Amino acid sequence: MNILPEPRVIEHMKGEFLLKGNMRIELDTSCGDKEFYSAKILRGAFKELGIESSIIKSLPKRVIGDIRIKIEKDMHLNQNKETHFNQNKDIHHIQNIENKEEAYCIEIKEDYITVMGTNSKGIFYGVQTLKQIVESGDRRITCTKIVDYPEFRVRGFYHDITRGKVPTLDTLKGIVDDLAKYKINHFQLYVEHVFPFTGHEEVWAHKDPITPEEILELDQYCINNNIELVPSIATFGHLYHLLSSERYGHLCELEDSKGKPFSWVDRMGHHTIDISNEESIKIIEGMIEDYLPLFSSNKFNICCDETFDLGKGRSKEYVEKVGKGRAYLDFLNKLINIVKKNGKIPMFWGDIILNYPELLDEISEDVICLNWNYSPEATDSSTKTLSESGRRFYTCPAVWGWDRFMNDIEGSFSNIEKMVSYGKEFGAEGVLCTDWGDYGHVNSYSSSKPGMILSAVLSWNSDSKAEILEGQISEREFGDRDIVSLMRELGKQQYISFMETVWWMENKMKKTTLLIERSELIEKYMLNKSEEQLKQSYYAAYEIEESFKDKLYENSKSKEDIKSFILSARAVGLLNSLYLYIKEWDFNEKVDEFIHDNNELSNLFEKWLNEYKEIWRKDNKESELYRIEEFFNEICIYLRRGDGKLC
């Protein structure tokens, strides 16, 4: 059985359960509305297989169901219970485990299947496991006993909806369905400017923001699926749109932030709020109190990461007086107090405060520090520091999708495996796997699924064998064991990423001071790509695209996902081809032979862009699609002019 996450204990026995034409899903009298919701999920799985099913409810003495669902609050393993297992196995008693409330047992017998949970959460996760078993396609299911419970109490996914794509409500619900399937119970959406904050119309107008009503509906949908939807907004750094507006630009740490053309690079690199201005905390407090009431969660993530410009501009005198660490901590604690005043537990990213570990004790003990490290070679140092400080913390790896059309599967898998292991070793409360959208969020959500699923699997059961999970994830999610390995290979071919193309474009058009200051470094970095390497990556991406096309014809389960991978492969190849022209036209490095004629390459980009827009619009609001379109239109003009100039 390919079940993800892998259950703690699976014991196969003699005999088979036969899926019939009309399955009765029976709820015990211990069950209520939440168990009824779980039963409907199972009924949906049967419907997908063309099997009719009905949901009934019976007294314990009149049990007749084919699938029997019941709550066993004192569920445990011993010789007097049906849930007894082979005593030679090293099995924990469910009543003694820390995360008992999410524990479940499944017993598949020849005549019926029983799903038991300690409460509604256990029932829900038991049903998710049984759903995967049913979806395997086998009409005859081997008689099996399963006992399962999670390793980490919190298993989360963090999704950026602010720097490119704003998903539709239906798309967000689809993501929730995916999270529930893999037993993730914590979900955050990253927001900077894509919410209609009161008085910030200049900031969010024309951005297709997520609406209060959509959040309320999504929150309820998450509750139904045993997922905590946690609010997360930028409150300190990464406030580009707020701090470059006419109304609030005076609160930016660096002066002259207003009236400049949009820059992806500047959005990532600048725009920390001026903490020396008393107006700043009032503005942020208003944003928090606008957003906070929409969520049923008792937590609120204030972010506070990457405050790059702190003390470099308007607050310089203040920061020099008190010290950068102290200045950061004082503003952080003001934000923490606002959140706590409104009855929520604050969360924040730990990258800045970890530079000042001596200040950790001055943060309230109930605050949760989000310890992110996205390196494939991540060490345990920051995790160990937080553990020794006694702080509450989650460990936060990444799916590695930012800046690129295909995620770096290899880098993300290494990072996730390491960070989950450090969380286990040093006592993290949870794992929060992040999916950032720097530079327009050009990759598809589908390309982030392997990393999200790996994190879900390991945070539920870290004893799972990571080296074999790639094929299992591919088969379970995409219906083909080769899909993720193709994604992995495509990730390696991004010799030129979208981010590097943005660097080149914005430096060339003088849209950002950040790159103009580093122009010599950028030129040296770009010239490091040889003609041979670019061509090899182009042709490798082409071959991978053809392989995805073959899979599209063979695969009935994941056609939309595979279509997005085909476009990703084409984008990777076209960007490698583009860079041959950049090398010769911009950096005067002679290219022996171009892959495409410049007009032909422009045509290929335009055809690709039209298909890309169609896929974007299926799952997302218009949001920043126009920026992607404008960017590639500029590339086509550059190619057609044939002289290395932009309009």
Automatic annotation (TrEMBL):
It comes from the Bacteria. The active site is at 306 (proton donor). Pfam families: Glyco_hydro_20 (PF00728), Glyco_hydro_20b (PF02838). GO terms for cellular component: membrane. It catalyses: Hydrolysis of terminal non-reducing N-acetyl-D-hexosamine residues in N-acetyl-beta-D-hexosaminides. InterPro entries: Beta_hexosaminidase_sua/sub, GH, Glyco_hydro_20_cat, Hex-like_dom2, HEX_bac_N. Keywords: Glycosidase, Hydrolase. GO terms for biological process: carbohydrate metabolic process; glycosaminoglycan metabolic process. Residues 2-149 form the Beta-hexosaminidase bacterial type N-terminal domain. Residues 152-387 form the Glycoside hydrolase family 20 catalytic domain. GO terms for molecular function: beta-N-acetylhexosaminidase activity. CDD domains: GH20_GcnA-like. Its EC number is 3.2.1.52. Belongs to the glycosyl hydrolase 20 family. This is beta-N-acetylhexosaminidase. It comes from Oceanirhabdus seepicola. The lineage of its organism: Bacteria, Bacillati, Bacillota, Clostridia, Eubacteriales.
